[in-house]
Amino acid sequence: MIVLGIGSSIEPREEYLRRAIDLLSKNKEITVKKISKVYKTLAWGGVAQNYFLNICVSITFSGEADTLLDIIQDIENHLGRVRDKHWGDRTIDIDILFFNNSTINNDRLIVPHPYILQRNFVLAPLIDVCGDISFEGRKLSDWLSDISDSIEICGNVL
User: Fold this and answer.
1) How distant, in Å, are the alpha carbons of 33, 35, 62, 81 from that of 55?
2) How far apart are CA 156 and CA 158, in angstroms?
3) Which residue has the higher pLDDT, 152 or 107?
4) What is the separation, in whole angstroms, between the first and last Cα of the chain?
5) The whole model's pTM is what?
6) 79 CB contacts (<8 Å, ≥6 apart)?
7) Which of 13, 98, 140, 144 has its CA 20 to 30 A from that of 116?
8) Residues identified as active-site
9) Strand-pair partners of 135
10) What are 47-102's pLDDT values in tens digits?
11) Residue 124, H or E segment
C-alpha cells in the first residue's frame, strides 16, 4: 500500500487538491485507488498563517520510491509550490506517508513519514483510506485520540 498525504493552505485550496489528484491520475505508472474526505485544520509547525485542507490518497505505483518522489515534486512545482519557508503556507504539499512495507531513510526521503503520529490532519484521512490499522503498536484511532488539536471534516474533494 502506498499512501500520499496532500495539503493546501493557499486559495483555491480545494482546486489545488483536485488538480494534484488529476495530475497523479494522468501518470501512466500511478493508479489512484482511494481518496479520503477533506479535513480542515490549523497550520502545524508554527510558520504557516492560513488554515489547511488535507486529504490522503492511496495509490499503486509501478516504480521505486525515489521516482515517485520526483513525480510528486514535479506536480508540486507545476502547481506553483514555492519552498521559501519550511512549514510555511503553500499551494500544494504532497508527502509519501507509506510506500508498501518499505522503510526508507536517505537524504531525500523518510518513509514511513516521521510525523504521521503527531498530525491529526494525517491520521484522520489515513483512517479513511486504510481503515483503523495498527501502526507502531497501536490503532490509528488511538494515536488520533491523543491529539487535542481540532479538525473539521469538509466533505469530499471530488
Assistant:
1) 13, 7, 22, 17
2) 6
3) 107
4) 22
5) 0.92
6) 16, 19, 20, 23, 91, 92
7) 13
8) 81, 90, 93, 95
9) 138
10) 557 889 999 999 999 999 999 999 999 999 999 887 765 556 889 999 999 999 99
11) helix 120-130
